[in-house]
Design a protein that fits this description.
Elements (H helix, E strand, L loop, with lengths): L4 E11 L9 E7 L12 H5 L3 E4 H6 L5 E5 L9 H9 L3 E6 L14 E4 L12 H8 L4 E6 L3 H14 L7 E4 L6 H16 L2 H5 L3 E2 L3 H6 L6
Parallel strand pairs: 2-4, 4-5, 5-6, 6-7, 7-8, 8-9
Antiparallel strand pairs: 1-2, 1-3
């Protein structure tokens, strides 16, 4: 890759489909590559594509919204400092989505929100506990878990118990959305029931949120 270039899979405008900014108009910048291979990954095309080389100015010129989500894959595998600085300098509020295996404190000044997604046992992958703790020391972070089964759920409870006040109000749970709409509704109901039956999660202000884009468009790309 040419120095100063990014490998970009797609740039598109849509509403944010998940997390605390759900429903807000965003420009999404999806970068190529990831260091994980989760069983239920819903963006495998970002792993398989080498992307298109683009300069920072070119990417910034394609941004139409006040909120920007830099995602992947795992975007922090690339040198995104110039991109985040350019977006911040242009007045955009930047969310960075990361799988909790990479940390670069030099990016913090440019980030409005870190959306950190540690991978639970159902993924077949994992996360770095030191990296997670580093993110939890920030105020501008949400910790987003995909919960597929009882083992995943117990792991979330264990994490919330372990980190206590560090995670209060920061944890978002969602089920795997790679399924039919009817099955997705069932999974959401199951997860809501599990959370409401857990005193630990209720007292830690854990939220269950759907993936809005899955409900509207299914697993279509670029939305």
């Amino acid at each position: 890759m040419v120095k100063g270039k990014l490998r970009v899979v797609e740039v598109f405008d849509s509403v944010q489909g998940e997390g605390e900014l759900i429903g807000m108009p965003h420009t999404f910048v999806r970068l190529a590559g990831c260091n994980l291979r989760c069983r239920w990954c819903d963006t495998k095309f970002a792993l398989e594509s080498s992307g298109v080389e683009m300069g920072v100015d070119e990417v910034v010129s394609k941004v139409n919204c006040g909120y920007v989500c830099v995602t992947g894959g795992e975007p922090l595998l690339q040198d995104v400092c110039g991109l985040l600085a350019g977006l911040s300098e242009s007045g955009r509020k930047v969310t960075v989505e990361t799988n909790c295996t990479v940390r670069d404190k030099g990016l913090d000044e440019f980030v409005f929100l870190y959306s950190v997604s540690p991978k639970l046992s159902s993924s077949g992958e994992g996360y770095d506990e030191d990296v997670l703790l580093s993110y939890l020391n920030l105020d501008n972070v949400q910790v987003k878990f995909v919960v597929c089964d009882d083992d995943d759920f117990l792991e979330v409870v264990s994490i919330v118990e372990k980190y206590g006040a560090f995670v209060r109000g920061k944890v978002v749970l969602q089920p795997d959305g790679m399924c039919s709409l009817a099955e997705y509704q069932r999974r959401l109901g199951w997860l809501c029931g599990k959370v409401m039956a857990s005193k630990v999660l209720v007292l830690s202000d854990v939220r269950v949120l759907l993936q809005l884009h899955k409900v509207i468009w299914g697993n279509k790309k670029g939305v």
